[in-house]
Specification:
With 678 residues, the chain is α+β, with helices and mostly antiparallel strands. It is built from 22 helices and 18 strands.
Length: 678
């Protein structure tokens, strides 16, 4: 980098890195003192609050309504646990290894610009005593119920202590129960700390001892939930417990890595700032997190050929981008060509196009892991990033769409940085690129729940289930029309969200094609699946190369509305294959009225370009045929934007141009508007 880029890098890091380190340590120390001072108490594992307790604190329900439905099948309301102060209280996440973002960068999309939405948060892990749990509490949400009751008791004690004249009155400004990544199984306590300089937020994350439950019981193939007395595989549920058990070990691994590599912390901050500029942290249901990026960078430095501990900040970041876009090689030294998800494509299953990347085939910190274990993880999750402890998939909450979005943005940024242009650094790290800019087609799907909240499911959020289903349908429907598809919940809470946003980046060559070509007729299984997916729209069609294939033809869409085809195809596929959809809206037609002519008609720009080029060809031919000129005309080239289809209001044909006999229009037998004598 040149001196200007060095100065920009330093200024960007100074702005992005959180400067509240000393303040955060003081806050954690005070919180530790408060939590350690809590008294032991017998707590009922109940789903509703006693009347006496309601009189003391009626600001919130004892347990969220959605959690009552979630834990209804535990049948533990008559049992109790003995509350004891946390075994340990430690800061975790970015603040523990120097990779935290500042409040200016961390929540760039705060609602309404309110200060409370941009307050920096410090993650603090409190380890619940093992005596609170029984041997088989990993089954049927028993652990989660005790975890919630334990955390709610801490909240209640902190709120009560604020009413008394002690340290908590000055220390705790606000204490709210929220959900970790909108998972109503995993509440966390967000404490707003009153400070003279600036309010801080401490997010209290309950965890458990690493050896509380056997690691093998939390594996991806284990059945820890039951429905109608029948147990079923529950990898997502098991990982929600493994997250807590591995919290301290993962954080210690990360701290050690960041101590070993001098510029790893600065590179982590810069990558998080880059992701924040692209609003990749915006949706918490299935999106990437700063902690995930930190772990990924640490693993890459350890294993990737493109990074090494001796690199500086700029080299680490560029190596990170390059590595993300590179498909890894398997044990034979051959790069994976497509994603298998742990099993071969079954007969008749439609495939969605997916470009190989760093996560294709899974990412495993333990290189000595056997192939059978790897396949079990890849079969259970769309994205796998297995931690060094071997029991936690760090990407268990992250969707395939979020990973593809991350990889695609890394590819684009890498290309810009490789060009080493004058404004490359500004374009990559200092330019805001929200999703409204990065996606061509935006859709909103309103969907109603198709099952009861009391149904036992591996994924606790009904909306999260709908997101995955809609994403898989969109990938098949768009196929090579789209370079990227992203689905995310628009709602702010896991139980209330019923609107799902879909973003599509269209392929420049195939995005507006009129025909979707399916499998050939000799492949009966795939042809049958194709017909089932597209329904009545599917038809047999013979192509110029003599192929006879299933196809969907969108010829009923007029040429002037050809830009509607991707949205029309997506809407039809979703309504045909997804249950519970109430309505679908899309953005392809929002500018139609603006681009319409004064008489209300809308003619496609491509049609105008076609007519203009035809006229230019005739004019060029006449000019080349002219003989009584000093210099002969050899060639005519168009330079106007109208010829390239880039002029929204290109010149239109004059109504008299075919009737004046100028010889540049139609043949004599077609001319009928006016006579030649005009």
């Amino acid at each position: 980098m040149n001196s200007l880029d060095d100065a920009l890098l330093k200024a960007t890091l100074d702005d992005a890195r959180c400067q509240q380190t000393s303040l955060g340590k003081s806050a954690v120390a005070q919180l530790t003192s408060l939590l350690k001072g809590l008294e032991e108490k017998e707590l009922k594992l109940k789903l509703e609050e006693d009347e006496e307790e309601e009189e003391e604190d009626n600001d919130e329900d004892y347990i969220n309504a959605s959690a009552r439905d979630l834990f209804a099948h535990t049948n533990m309301s008559a049992k109790t646990i003995t509350f004891k102060p946390p075994s340990s209280v430690k800061a975790v996440g970015g603040h523990s290894y120097g990779g935290a973002l500042s409040f200016n960068t961390n929540n760039r999309g705060g609602k309404d610009g309110k200060e409370e939405d941009t307050t920096p948060a410090i993650d603090v892990a409190i380890e619940m005593p093992s005596s609170c749990f029984n041997e088989k509490d990993y089954l049927d949400h028993r652990y989660h119920l005790k975890r919630m009751v334990y955390l709610k008791h801490i909240q209640k004690q902190l709120l009560m202590s604020r009413k008394k004249k002690n340290i908590a009155k000055k220390f705790v400004k606000k204490c709210d129960l929220t959900f970790y990544q909108n998972d109503n199984r995993k509440p966390c306590l967000t404490i707003t700390i009153d400070n003279h300089e600036r309010d801080l937020k401490v997010r209290v994350l309950p965890c458990c001892a690493a050896n509380l439950f056997p690691k093998q019981r939390l594996g991806p193939t284990k059945s820890n939930l039951k429905k109608n007395e029948v147990r079923f595989e529950s990898p997502r549920y098991s990982q929600s417990i493994a997250e807590d058990a591995a919290m301290h070990s993962i954080n210690e691994w990360l701290q050690n890595k960041y101590k070993e590599v001098k510029f790893l912390g600065a590179a982590s901050v810069l990558i998080k700032a880059w992701a924040s500029r692209r609003h990749l942290f915006e949706y918490s249901n299935d999106g990437i997190t700063g902690f995930f990026l930190s772990c990924l960078l640490a693993h890459m430095v350890e294993t990737s050929d493109a990074l090494s501990p001796a690199m500086d900040t700029n080299q680490l970041v560029q190596g990170f981008f390059v590595t993300l876009a590179t498909a890894k090689k398997n044990s034979s030294g051959i790069a994976n060509s497509k994603r298998t998800n742990g099993s071969n494509k079954s007969s008749g299953e439609l495939e969605s196009s997916s470009i190989p990347n760093y996560f294709t085939g899974g990412v495993f910190c333990d290189s000595e892991l056997d192939e059978e274990t790897k396949k079990s993880w890849i079969g259970a999750f769309k994205v796998v990033f297995l931690s060094p402890c071997g029991s936690l998939n760090l990407a268990s909450r992250i969707s395939q769409g979020a990973i593809e979005e991350l990889v695609q943005e890394a590819v684009k940024s890498s290309e810009v940085l490789e060009q080493a242009g004058r404004n490359a650094f500004v374009e990559v790290f200092l330019t805001d690129l929200p999703r409204a800019v990065r996606y061509d087609l935006h859709m909103q799907v309103e969907i109603s729940p198709t099952s009861s909240l009391k149904d036992v499911k591996d994924i606790s959020s009904e909306t999260r289930i709908a997101e995955e289903e809609i994403f898989s349908i969109m990938k098949i429907a768009m196929n090579d029309r789209a370079d990227a598809v992203r689905c995310a919940s628009i709602g702010t809470s896991a139980c209330n969200a019923n609107k799902i946003w879909i973003g599509v980046q269209l392929n420049p060559e195939n995005g507006l094609k009129v025909i979707d070509v399916g499998p050939p007729t000799d492949n009966e299984a795939e042809a049958k699946t194709f017909r089932a997916f597209w329904g009545e729209k599917s038809e047999l069609r013979r192509f110029k190369d003599a192929r006879i294939c299933e196809a969907v033809v969108w010829s009923f869409v007029p040429a002037s509305r050809r830009h509607h085809i991707p949205a029309v195809a997506a809407e039809y596929a979703l309504k045909k294959n997804v249950k519970g959809i109430d309505s679908i809206t899309w953005t392809s037609k929002v500018f139609d009225d603006l681009l319409s002519s004064s008489d209300g008609s809308f003619v496609a720009v491509s049609e105008h370009s076609k007519h203009l080029l035809q006229t230019l060809d005739r004019l060029a031919r006449r000019m080349k045929e002219m003989k009584d000129v000093p210099l002969k005309v050899y060639n005519v080239q168009p330079i106007s934007a109208a010829f390239r289809g880039c002029d929204p209001f290109p010149p239109k044909q004059h109504p008299l141009m075919f009737g004046i006999g100028a010889g540049l229009g139609k043949d004599d037998e077609v001319i009928s508007a006016f006579s030649r004598t005009l």
